Each structure stands twice: as C-alpha cells, then as structure tokens.
Amino acid sequence: MTQTNVAAQLEAAAASLADAIVSPPLTAKPGSGAVNFSSDGLIHEEVIPPSLGEKIASFSAVILPLVGTIIAMVMLWGVAFNWVYLGLFIGMYLATGLGITVGYHRLFTHRSFEAGPKTKWLWAVLGSMAAEGPVLDWVSMHRRHHQHSDEAGDPHSPHEHGGGVRGVLGGFWHAHVGWVFKGEPVNMERYVPDFKNDAVVQSVSRQFGLWFFVGLLIPAILGGLLTMSWMGVLLGFIWGGAVRVFAVHHVTWSINSVCHIWGSRPFNSHDESRNNAIMGVLAMGEGWHNNHHAFPTSARHGLAWWQFDLSYLVIRGMEVLGLAKRIRVPDQARIAAKRRGE
pLDDT by residue (tens digit) across 245-263? Predict the structure, then answer.
C-alpha cells in the first residue's frame, strides 16, 4: 500500500470520527457512562407545539430586555453613553460573540472546519471572554444537547415542562437561563475525547478565569485611553464589559429557548429546532437553528442566499487568508434529501 493510500484512509477515518463525535442522533446506555454513536434504538418523544399566544409570551421575554438596553443607551446618550462606548460595546460584542459562534461552536464543538494552533488559541480566548464557561465545558454540554435534543437528557430544552402559558414560560425560563443553575451532569469529559491531547484547547480551558478577566479589562483600558479619564475607565468597563456580557449571554441563550419554540422548520431534524430570522442576525448566523440541527457539522448555518450568516462569512474570510481549511458544507443533494415535505 502506498503512502498516498494510507494518508487517504487515515483522513477518511478521522472525518468519520469527527462526524461520530459531533453529529446527532447519539444514544447512551443508561448508567453506562459511555456514548454509543449510533441512531439504533433512539426514541423520539412527541412534543406538543405551543400556541401562538404562548410563543408571543416567550418571545417577548427575550426581546423586551434587549429593547430596554437600547432605550437605556438612547436616554443616557451624552450623559453616560456616547460614540466611544457604543464602539466599545459593538466591538467587544462582535469579538466575543464570534468567539462563541465561530470558535466554541463551529470549530471546537462540531469541527466544521480546521485551523492551526494559533488560530485555535485566538478563538478559544475570544470565546472565553464571552464568559460562558471554559471551552471544554461548553463543548461537552453542547454535544450533550445534540445527543438528546428536546428529549430527556437535553440540558436546556424548553419542552416537556407542562402545558399552557405557565408550562411554556417555565420551559422557556429553564432553556434560557434556568439550566445554568442546575449543575453539571457527571462524567461530561466523555463528550470531549478528541481534545484529550490538544494542548492548546486544554490550556485555554484551564485559563478561563484569566481570559474572562481580560475581556473586562480591555474595554476599561480602552475607555480610559480614548477619553483620558477615570470615568472613561468605569464606563468602558460598564458598556464594553458588563452590558456586553449581558447582551452576548442573552442572545446565546435565546438560541436554546426561542429557537426551539418560535420559527420555521424547513428540514427534518428529529427535534423542535427552528429557524428564526431575528436571532439569525443578532446571533451572527446561529439563529438558523433548524438548518444547524439538520446539518450539525456544516460551517454554514444560513443555507439560503438570503439567510445572513456573519459567522460563516468570517470563516470564509479566514479561508482566503489561509487560516481555515476543509470547510464542511452540505451539497445540494443532501440539503434536498432532508427538506420536509409540504
């Protein structure tokens, strides 16, 4: 066997392993502590869709805090908010938000493209600055979500919390933020065996506290330097740090809550994942969530030309610069095969 054939077989095996690790459906034997990456025996429980009124109630719970933040910015303009702090807020929102969407999610969780050590380090650091936890914890929890999406075992499904407005709002609260306070299931490291020997990811994951602090320090320092005042330091910290963390968290959690309740389902995905155009923009492409659950290893979530996906544009830009390779996107035949019948 030639060296070329051996290399080709190794590459194919690696691709198969990556698909097994990050693609649903997955099953696990109860109490076994091991994951069986197979769809055999997977049970999908029926979910009763919420009514229009219940959807409006849950969606309002997401939009109103964001609207309130914008109103606060307008009312404080010229007093405790101006172009400097708006720039710090937007800049840090984009940098750390993309750290989650491009780094934590598409690169590390689903391996939808490949990158070198320095690029991986940068995305892991930016994701850490978003204050959503160490990269390995985030990846393991998200892979568990795909394994059990909208079924028992899903860490943040809004479903199966009872009927009526109370049940929907209770499920919404759990999916949006309540799950954060539930604690972490045991033996979560079984979801990240592919990072056991990855020194870059292991190192940044251990240093999460450091990079979280740096993510708050950067806008504070820039605010001080740009205004040459201590008040600039404080307001830079508030708008580019605290408020930005709130916004990134709120939008990220909306993918777990809103995008499993409110939106369209063009593809078969064995769950209640939805495409939501508003979240598609705010979450930099993550809101095309039904697309993502149908094709979890795809680097592109906005599969239609009109579905804006900033994260994918960044990945393509990285490819042009030689910073990303082997970008995975489903072909038209696979997309057509998974499309739901009218």
Answer: 999 999 999 999 889 988 9
Tokens standing for residue 321:
């610069």
Residues 6+ apart with CB under 8 A from 203: none
What backbone phi and psi angles, to 5 degrees, belong to 273? -60, 145
C-alpha–C-alpha distance, residues 211 and 204, integer Å = 8
- Helices in 177-329 by DSSP H: which ranges? 199-206, 208-227, 230-237, 244-257, 277-282, 289-294, 310-320
Angle formed by the axes of helices 135-147 and 117-129, nearest 10°: 80
Cα–Cα dist 136/141, whole Å? 9
DSSP-H helix ranges across the chain: 3-22, 52-75, 83-98, 117-129, 135-147, 164-176, 199-206, 208-227, 230-237, 244-257, 277-282, 289-294, 310-320, 332-338
∠ CA 221-225-229, nearest 5°, is 95
Minimal CA–CA distance to 200: which of 312, 107, 124, 133? 124
CA 282/CA 252 separation, integer angstroms:
9
Q: Give per-residue pLDDT as tens, 77-130.
A: 888 889 999 999 999 999 999 999 999 999 999 999 999 999 999 999 999 999
What CA–CA distance (Å, rounded) separates 68 from 75?
10
Give the list of residues 6+ apart from residue 134 with CB closer than 8 angstroms, or none: 128, 204, 205, 206, 208
Q: Which amino acid makes up residue 214?
A: V
- Residue 162 reports pLDDT greater than 50: yes
Q: Which residue has the higher pLDDT, 100 or 9?
A: 100
Given a cut of 70, whether residue 134 has pLDDT beyond it is: yes
Backbone angles phi, psi at 140, to 5 degrees: -65, -40
Q: Is the pLDDT of residue 235 over 80?
A: yes
Q: How many CB atoms lie within 10 A of CB 8?
A: 11
Question: Could you give the count of Cα atoms lying within 13 Å of 8 in the half-sphere of its Cβ?
Answer: 5
